[in-house]
Amino acid sequence: MKILDVENLNLGFSCENGFNQALWDVSFSLSKGEMLALVGESGCGKTMSAMSILQLLPKTAKITSGVISFNGKDLLKETCKEVQSIRGAKIALIPQDPMTSLNPLFTVGEQLLEVIRIHQHLKGKAAWQKAVEAFEAVQIPSAEKRLKDYPHEFSGGMKQRAIIAMALACNAEILIADEPTTALDVTIQAQIMNLLEEIKTDRKTAILLITHDLALVREHADKVAVMYAGRIVESAAANEFFEHPNHPYSLALLNSIPANRDKSLETITGQPPSIQQIIEGCKFHPRCKNCMEICTKKIPPEYSVGENHFSACFLNESLERKSD
After folding, report:
1. CA–CA gap between residue 122 and residue 132 (Å, rounded)
2. What are the DSSP calls for 78-113, one per residue?
3. Interval 90-120: pLDDT, tens
């Protein structure tokens, strides 16, 4: 059952030189108990796509068209008050940097209780008990004692667990995890990802995972959507994606992973374009080893390259296009 459906999302920024588009017809969906990984290099539009769902955008940003449907309700047509009631309660964000996400002037418990009071409308002992249960759910030992600690008394991994606890305390239906393992060592990364996996399985929570770490994606994600320069260039079930990657950008990302000691790492020349940079045709063509003349003139449509597997590349010209 689909809980989130983003369709043809277009977004841009008002800059000194005019309006520059940053997201182009971005579409993806999430079902209960499913993890979708949004992958790509920094600057490809992953975080901006997620922030559009929560409508936590810079003042210069504007969504020009599209649909963001949550439980059948288009959030782009809802009032600010309605979106605020959903944000944090039904759709929760696990921000990118756990080290700076908590206010150092208040105990972690005070910050968790504030979330519970606002979204669960609980007070006193009931709110405190809810906070303890949330800490226990994310496996923070001595939960009642640790609620009284300040953020500086928590390690990076514990801070991330506390932030996840805030989402669980509100029974969020969707977690948006923006690079949730940033700045954590490998052991703690595994613990956090295993925790998210348990939440997904046990609570049927839908998770949008934003990451550039394809090793994490291979191990935990159910679906993959690859973004480049504000477009989704390939989407598929995770198993299908890793067994049969199609788009040249996806292949380049996979070939840059140190998976085989006997194989030298490949690099992708250049870098993703800025939103102010005008590139005709496929935006990846200046970096693509398979570039053809048509790639420099036209934007490739999405082609069906397998069951629920789509790729926006002219190398698939002989295949059926994705139906609109």
Report:
1. 13
2. S-HHHHHHHBTTTEEEE-S-TTSSS-TTS-HHHHHH
3. 999 988 776 778 899 999 999 999 999 988 8
> What is the per-residue pLDDT across 129-168, written as a single tens digit (0 to 9) for each?
999 999 999 989 999 999 999 999 998 889 989 999 988 8
| CB proximity list for 19: less than 8 A, separation 6 or greater | 12, 13, 62
* Ramachandran quadrant class, 262 (left: phi over 0; alpha: psi -120 to 50; beta: rest): alpha
Which are the contacts of 262, defined by CB distance < 8 A and separation ≥ 6? none
Looking at residue 152, the DSSP 8-state letter turns out to be: G
| Secondary structure class of 164 (helix, strand, coil) | helix
Amino acid of residue 281: G
Distance of CA 53 to the CA centre of its chain: 10
Instruction: For residue 15, give both structure tokens.
Output: 């800059």
Cα–Cα distance between 66 and 73 in angstroms, integer?
13
Backbone angles phi, psi at 64, to 5 degrees: -90, -25
Cβ partners under 8 Å of residue 314, min gap 6: 282, 292, 294, 295, 298, 300
Round to whole Å and give the CA distance between 116 and 110: 10
Look at the block and give the residue holding tokens 């801070």: 159
Is 12 in contact with 62 (CB distance < 8 Å)? yes
Q: How far apart are CA 46 and CA 36, in angstroms?
A: 12
**Which amino acid, 11?**
L
Tell me phi and psi for residue 15, to 5 degrees: -120, 175
